User: Fold these one by one.
Assistant:
Number 1:
Amino acid sequence: NNILGVGVLRALREMGLEVPTDMSVVCFDDVPVASLMYPFLTVVAQSPYTMGKLATQFLLERISGRGPAERQDVVLKPNFIIRESCRPPRNCGKIHILSGMEDK
């Protein structure tokens, strides 16, 4: 998550490494601190609102007897938000991002 990402940025800096020159950092989550750090953290983000809304909907359906008794697996499409903490590796030639996620 972004809190761990902040620690990673600090540890890399203490090791004399520069982000993203020497190493890219990508985190999961998108809390406000991600866009306040330097470099701004690149993230894979999920909507907490959407997750909460679906969880509430499934819970209410289950309580009312309309929902399935078994666990439901739901896959939400994340957003890949490219900021300053990542870039292609040096000397790698041409690369393609094949994640299927949208850049924002």
Number 2:
Amino acid sequence: DDGGRARARACLGVLTQLTTCAYHDLIPQLDADQIASFLVMSEFDPAWMALCNAMMTPSDSDATATAVITSLCQSLHAGLLDPNHSPAVVTGLIAIVRKSCDTLRIVRQELLQPLLLAVKSPPSELITLLTLLAKVEFQPDGGKAATCEDEFVNMCQGLLTPLLSPKSDLCSSALTALSMLLIVAPTQVHSFIAQSERLSCLLDLATSSESDLREKATQVLALASSDTSIRKAIIEADFSFIFFDALSSTNPSASAYSCLALSKLAGTDSTLNKTILSDPDLIDAVCFAIQNPTTQAVAFEALMYLSVYSPTKTALAGDAARLRQVLTSTPGQPYALAHIIASFATSSDDLRFDSQVDSDTEKMKALAAKGVPGSEKGIDLTAAAGSADEIAQVRLVLIESGAASVLSNIVENSSPELQTVQLHTTIAKALLRLSSCPTGSGRLVADGALKSLVNIALTDRESRPETLLYDASLAVARICIRMNPALVGDRVLGALPKLLLEFLESALHEMHEYEALLALTNVASLDEETRERILSLNGWQKLTSCLSSANSKIQVAALEAMTNLIACKAGFNRLSVNGEQDVKIFALFARAGESDRELCAALAGLAMMSTDPKLAKLIMTADGLKIAKAAKSRSTNPDVHARASALVNNLIRTPVESR
């Protein structure tokens, strides 16, 4: 009765707590018959199943679990067929199977058919259980667990093959099972589906007059299209029309899976690629599916495939409202969203510029497009990414639509289990691409991108892959070039000198070295405290070493950064003690400078040094007056003239005894 059940549940709560603490041994252990009795009486209540699972003795858990499953198979079979009980039975089986490997064999032999064809349980739970059944099997001789996906899929095929016919009453259930198996053991199921007779059957079902069979067959084919041979067969049979037709389906799932199928087919055939990417209904359907929680994951997978193509990028960038809708409607898809933003913001030039262009291209295939391999008429993903001019506009729209804010929120607010190296690597790549936008630095700082990048770059550096740290540091440098340092928080600002100096030393490209120098110059312009922090990190010596570069742009950028460092007490103190060599370096660049920028940097440094009598004497010795006069005669630039005049005035005002 109700009162007895209430008291039983109260006892259940106490017992459940005891099983998780030191008093576990005080609880009387249940034998298999008692556990079976409890489970049947409770109508497979999840709480009772959890308690019974916990009360199995650790030393005898395998034997107890096996005995329970064996004695319960008939009841469990009935429970799986009952829509009211099947979710609880599946949950309990997951717990017991995880605890005892030996139960896998029994469950697979006795319960596989109802699990595949009759269970009305949340798909995620059922897929979890099927995955456990597919991965390992306990060896009777006590050997190690061995993978047995082939054996598992063979068992499933034996059950499903006779049912894959429109004449079968269980055809719909068989198609649902096949969809789940494509997630559980994709490689083996691809081989099963790729057989010509079976694929032909699925294509026929996808054109069936029965909407349920048609939509479920479309879903199976969409999932199976990750396999190259299956995609080729669909294209050669000229059956891609079934997916175009289903785009406008009133069934959200059918429309979403059609988007997924077409996005995969687009990477296989160049002619079909143009047809798919030019269809306006495709982007409409993808964006609509993203708004639906039940189809969001499928839609994002489709958009991950499509995001490597410039037509997709420009289509969404041309509709800022829809783009913002996509960016802000994805609480459960942070990883996919970061990949999509990274792909959208990547141009062909970006891929070609990388010194490891081949690996970067493969990375874009594997990460942004889930590794769809090309056929004989496959697509060149580097060329398909879009020109620099096209992607520059896409980046600007992404930034204005809040892409950086979305990525920063993922870093700052996602749960710890989501904060993986893989996710951070993708976010760093996405923010790196966005940081290339010349007018976006202010918005990137305001949206938290700089803060997130610094957090990524400074967290567990020893365990982070070099590519992650490099991308994050390069993105930091690019943002720092054009930002206003006064608008950056103290914690982030305090971390920048060390981060930028380390990146300067590790830069793999001259362009990246140059960007690090420009970033240091801008950061050093903020205040004396920042300049002194850079000097305390051996910044002067690191900048001086860049003057020996064969690249004149790097030389000038280093000279500009050094000039900014002079304007602080620590800088003057250092030069006063041992600045003769530094004076000679600046004098050399001022004397031999070929560009106005080089002359401005060298003369500005000498002008600031000349305010100190001791340094002014060294400059006079180095023919500072002649250098200033020569610079004015070589250049008509007003900035050069202003700095040369300042140098002359300071030297003239120097006391005679110091000259």
